[in-house]
Amino acid sequence: MKFRGKTPKEPLTRKQKLRRELLRILVISAAALLSAFNLNSFVDTADLFPGGFSGAALLIIRLTDKYLGLKLAYSAVFLPLNVFPIYLGLRYLGKKFTFYSMYFTILSSVLTDAIPAIPITYDVLLICIFGGLINGMIIVLCLWMDASGGGTDFISIVLLERKGINAWNYILAGNVVILCLAGIFFGWDKALYSIIFQFVTTQVIQNLFKRYNQLTLIVITDMPESVYDKISILTHHDATLFRGEGFFKETTKHMIYSVIGADQAPMLIREIHEVDPHAFINVLKTERLAGHFYSRPRE
């Protein structure tokens, strides 16, 4: 049995590329505007400290205002903090990915300084929940458009893609330091409410962005060549073929085993059922993966 394996995809036309880039710019611009609104109307209203470099920037701004009487612009603090992450992005993640991430970082910083605060509510718990939801959606929008929100997003993606290291524990440790300093200087109620804000943000990201999650795919089929072609062409992942015998009808069965990205599963299952409507598909959550796993290259 010979499997065809991967076949090259048709290259995008110039018009399709232009539309894709225009969409990226529009979505990232909307995310930057939403980020500025969220920081001014929710985060600043409740004196919260979001995670990552944004929280660090707000901590520095509020400390200098409280103890030195200097009101620093958000962009004057946030942009310098992103110099090293941008360097990592240029070196490890690709120029286009870094460019769009820089675009978001600069635009959101400038808009944060330019847009006046419009408080929606003064209820801190509501601000934590809805501000966290908005913050999570902002990050997801950037990730969907193959960009990042800067700061710790750069660092976590570099460690995950290049070193296979889940940076969550390191980012969490950095957030703990920020929250402890915030609690000491501005009161522990602000720090504790900020934990709710960060928790909501994390839940939104984990539920809506699954590129870095893996699933184990087990397919029992009578059309292994066609099923493998779908897996190989659509996901660029390989598969292993097992041959066995079904107990009930005592007929020869083919079982295909593969590991794919969680974001690829719905499309792939649909395509497999198109070529083999009787295929039995079992999808399992993959907790840990050791070995080569194809990651879509960044531009």
From TrEMBL:
Boundaries of every DUF2179 domain copy: 238-288
Assigned GO CC terms: plasma membrane
Compartments, as annotated in UniProt: Cell membrane
Transmembrane segments: 21-39, 72-90, 97-118, 124-146, 167-186
InterPro entries membership: DUF2179 (IPR019264), N-reg_PII/ATP_PRibTrfase_C (IPR015867), UPF0750_membrane (IPR051461), YitT (IPR003740)
Entry annotated with the keyword Membrane: yes
Annotated membrane topology: Multi-pass membrane protein
Coiled coil regions, renumbered to chain: none
UniProt entry tagged with the keyword Calcium: no
Keywords, sorted A to Z: Cell membrane, Membrane, Transmembrane, Transmembrane helix
A Pfam family hit: YitT_membrane
PANTHER family reported for this sequence: UPF0750 MEMBRANE PROTEIN YITT, UPF0750 MEMBRANE PROTEIN YITT-RELATED
Name of the protein described by the UniProt record: DUF2179 domain-containing protein
Organism: Hornefia porci
